[in-house]
Write a structure and sequence with these properties.
This protein is of the alpha/beta class. It has one domain: 3-Layer(aba) Sandwich (Rossmann fold). Helix content is about 40%, strand content about 15%. The protein is built from 9 helices and 9 strands. The strands form 2 sheets. The protein has a 7-stranded parallel beta sheet with strand order 5-4-3-6-7-8-9, sandwiched between helices. It is globular.
């Protein structure tokens, strides 16, 4: 049994403490050069795992890996595009050669395109097809392809944990956000499909789950949520009014759910999407 079991010899009450640690494991974090992904990479390293910092920006990936190492963790930059299967395969082979395994994958890469979001003066008929395809490519295929590549050594060992990153936009209709919502909804369905398929075909040791962040201020949405003075825009105010906790999330607040789903503490959990949203998904607006 994983974790700490202090069951007494005479059959007394067991004091089982779940193991949230990731010591000795190797984790690939895609999108690790982004705001949320970089926080995830730091948190996973702090929990004891070796972290492969995967992102398109090689200089940013190396800077983050160096920061983790300076803090006492173990990390390496692994620049790659999540929709380039050959590049992902190269990263996997390098990790297996140098670190011996790939135990965990966090699919944090994602994003939106302006053309896949309706402007207030546009109709659905004007959605940009190219932008919609690009958003689906990045979010859906940018989750599927890394999963296919880094899953292989997990299947060989019969053990591993994958955590995808969804969004509130997948479960609730959010005005104007068309492409990103559809792509993240596909990621959630893929999460459930993978969880059930892998468990039935390869046993209970491989788990696939997701977290669904609520509203966090990042590079792509800052101007939508706040003006230059740091005051809420009308859209930002609507979001806060529909978030029972009355604030945006802090990136570090994703780590509790993330580490739970990656660790042996959740060894009987697969196929779930955990909202980290300050109550947004539970609130009817009334």
């Amino acid at each position: 049994m994983n974790g700490t079991d202090t069951r007494t010899e005479n059959g007394g009450l067991a004091a089982y403490r779940p193991d949230f640690g990731l010591q000795g494991k190797v984790c690939v974090v895609t999108g690790a050069t982004g705001v949320l992904g970089s926080v995830m990479a730091r948190g996973i390293a702090a929990a004891g795992a070796r972290v492969a910092v995967l992102g398109r920006r090689a200089d940013v990936a190396e800077a983050l890996a160096a920061e983790i190492r300076a803090a006492g963790g173990e990390a390496r930059a692994t620049p790659a595009d999540v929709v380039d299967k050959a590049a992902l395969t190269r990263v996997r082979d390098e990790l297996l050669r140098d670190w011996g395994s790939v135990d965990m994958l966090v699919n944090a890469a994602g994003g939106n395109q302006p053309g896949a979001t309706l402007r207030p003066d546009q109709s659905v008929l004007e959605l940009d097809e190219t932008a919609m395809r690009q958003v689906m490519e990045l979010n859906f295929f940018g989750t599927l392809l890394p999963t296919q590549v880094f899953l292989e050594p997990m299947v060989e060992r019969g053990a591993g944990a994958i955590v995808n990153v969804s969004s509130m936009a997948a479960d609730r209709a959010i005005t104007r956000v068309a492409g990103y919502s559809a792509a993240k909804a596909a990621v959630e369905n893929l999460t459930r499909w993978l969880a059930t398929t892998l468990a039935k075909r390869h046993g209970p040791g491989i788990r696939v789950n997701a977290i669904a962040p609520g509203f966090f201020v990042g590079e792509q949405n800052r101007s939508l949520l706040m003006d230059e003075g740091g005051n809420l825009t009308p859209r930002g105010r609507t979001i806060i009014d529909n978030t029972p906790m009355g604030r945006f999330g802090e990136a570090e607040e994703l780590l509790g759910a993330l580490l739970f789903l990656l660790s042996d503490a959740s060894r009987f959990v697969t196929g779930v999407v955990v909202p980290v949203d300050g109550g947004f998904s539970a609130f009817s607006g009334v």
